[in-house]
Amino acid sequence: MQLKKTYPKKLEVNVLSTYSSSFTSVKNELLPSHPLELTEKNFQLNQDKTNFATLRNIQGIHAPLKLQMEFRAVKQVQRLPFLHSSNMAMDILRGNDECIGFEDILNDPSQSEVMGEPHMMMEHKLGLL
């Protein structure tokens, strides 16, 4: 009796470079763990909608349209992707420049221990990767 050498079939594995794509996160796929978590995530959006509705009722349609146009203009002005931006102009437009919250102190990206690869981040932003 002669034994045959059998080799396992070659497995196809899709491996992505962590330089060009970040690690996958399970956190984004999870459902909210607390009833207030979803409300907190959408707080700024709900606040903006309320402010726009109030402005429209008090000053007319031009006020929220002007404010939305200013929001769009401020969002377009950014630093390079590997440099942290404080978005001070957006905070001023929203009135958040006078408040201190958890996001101002905890998890501050400007004090991060890890900085991304500048060349890779620029290539990703320009769509070269």
From TrEMBL:
Keywords: Chaperone. The keyword Zinc-finger does not apply. One of its GO terms (biological process) is proteasome assembly. GO terms for cellular component: cytoplasm; nucleus. Belongs to the POMP/UMP1 family. This is Uncharacterized protein. It comes from Geospiza parvula.
